[in-house]
Amino acid sequence: MNGKIMLKVKRVGIVGCGSIAGLNEEDSYRKKPCTHAGAYMLRKDVNIVGCCDVKLERSRIFAKKFNIPFFTTSINKLLNKNIHILSICVPYKYNYSLINKIVKSVNPPKKILLEKPISNNFSSAKKIVKLCRKNNIKLYVNNRQL
Fold it and tell me: Taking the model in full, what pTM does it have?
């Protein structure tokens, strides 16, 4: 081992290929990193292995911009890449239905980093928490304030 610490690299997937996912890195007025992709790219223990968006062209452009090897419109195809951490960066009204699909997947992630707010109503927020607990997925909600 030559005295070096070996890092276990986490495999990350990003769902939603818009501003908070990565495109805000182009905003010169924002303190960097200011996005999920920007923060992940600074870490040596993280590898972004794929991204997913409902629009294939948007996911392709995002993947090219951040040198991500895989892009798709299918959450299941992304999860088949053995994702450890999944960043969900979609409009919050879709969070519950998306997480409901994720927990039914053959390969759910171990952790979900959910962009705020958790949901558009209290009822679905409670359901999201319950789904993650029931399926042994650690749920984190991003609440970074500048």
Answer: 0.93
